[in-house]
């Protein structure tokens, strides 16, 4: 196995997990307390640490204060270096006794916290000032575990087949996080030792691998988590290069395939406090879905597969410079125009030809394939069943025969980028699984109406709501009620980092969420079959039709090929 350093990769993945703007009232688990104590003398035989602890407890207004053992060898040196005036960092959480976790000579002005979202493809980290709550630096990187498997289940399979290699996956993600920390503290002129608290979120597999837990049980029913509740650990337990006494708060997981990232996104969007029914969905290899309002909240996961991330698509790739991310097709000429990551201009605009030479057109990413299929449907190039209409070859040279099916060519200068029938089928399977999962939650909630739809995650932020609905990725809703909320999991992690109250809030909420296992629900298959059509075989999509003119259904005989590669025969007379 050969590893290519991220910085050396050409057209490497664009990590889109910035810190979203959100005001968070600081109430950190870390408090800085500065005290002065008397020098020891022959009349006072008590130990320096004991006298310091008493002074700190009195100043902080707490009855009992523990000391992290990591400080024991260093306290006397620090006291004397500070001429008996020191600043202590005290960690206080409801679930633990207040404990002194760090100590500096003299006065200490600022300490920091770390909020990390460990995704299966990307890791995003935010450095926050624990005193004022500001996010001072953010950074992201590709998850190096990709070399052990592109998606979650392939990594679980890797561990199952190579149990002795589990430490390699654990080490890879921890080293990537340590590298991010180095960049973050360097950006603000701080030191690793200034980071005293951290929060981590991730899907269940990432959660387990980060903690060093074998994820094999998550690979099959009943998808048992080794641990689901919130927990507080030390950074040194996890080989994190922070202050030796730094604490790590792991947000709770919701269910076997609905993780701490979904819990954090739920905290960020707080549907449990709203009258309106909200759908929160994180589109990924395994989509995480939360639906409800202040009266009731349900959650499920749906096996969408990697198609939305560019995998299983003939010209698919991850979001990186050179990837087509936006597409429009003229209904009259059937000519496409597209936008590529790394170039501001559209393909038909002046300056595109000159600028595209620097990045090239290398493939199509998730948002691009969604728009491509939706635009092909609007232009009449495919039927509502997702079949490319071969008769359209008479109107455009871009519809080409591929044996017993057809394709549509988007770009033909340099590398040819086409949408094949198999690509459309992969997207149908993915969106059908997601929609079926959502419909199951609607059934359980007893409603056909959704007021708000929020796309969480980096990918969701780049999905155009209109095209997501045309595709039938999400249920009908007023288009202005659909939006992306960016890295909501990262926002939830920052909230839990900066305010202890949010930790209690999400812990209580997770215990109230009803978990639905889609694999055990008889109606999943029925919803899935209906959701294969564009936008859906039975759901009317009234709001969408009021905003977008959808094509009239084509009868099967008008299509020259089908999704399973067989021609349809015309009926006689």
Strand order of the largest sheet: 7-6-5-8-10-9
Per DSSP, the total helix count is: 15
Q: What's the rounded overall pLDDT mean? A: 91
Report the uncertain regions: 1-11, 556-573
Instruction: Give the overall shape.
Output: elongated
Category from helices, strands and their pairing: alpha/beta
Distance between the termini: 62 Å
How many β-strand runs? 22
Region (Disordered): 552-573
Pfam family, one: RACo_C_ter
Organism: Roseibium alexandrii (strain DSM 17067 / NCIMB 14079 / DFL-11)
Protein name: Putative metal-binding protein
Tell me about this structure:
This protein has a 6-stranded mixed sheet, with helices on both faces. It has a 6-stranded mixed sheet with strand order 21-20-11-12-13-22, sandwiched between helices. Strands 1-3-4-2 form a 4-stranded mixed sheet. It folds into 3 domains: 6-17 and 111-257, Nucleotidyltransferase, domain 5 (2-Layer Sandwich), CATH 3.30.420.480; 30-105, Roll (Ubiquitin-like (UB roll)); 258-568, no CATH class. Helices cover 29% and strands 21% of the residues. With 573 residues, it is α/β, with parallel strands linked by helices. It contains 15 helices and 22 strands. The chain has helices at residues 48-60, 75-81, 152-161, 166-187, 204-211, 260-269, 352-359, 366-378, 421-445, 457-460, 465-471, 488-498, 500-512, 523-531, 542-547; strands at residues 30-36, 66-67, 85-93, 96-105, 112-118, 122-129, 135-142, 195-202, 231-234, 247-250, 278-282, 287-292, 297-302, 323-329, 336-340, 363-364, 399-402, 405-411, 417-420, 452-456, 482-484, 514-515. The longest helix is centred in the C-terminal third of the chain and has 25 residues, at 421-445. Residues 552-573 are annotated as: Disordered.
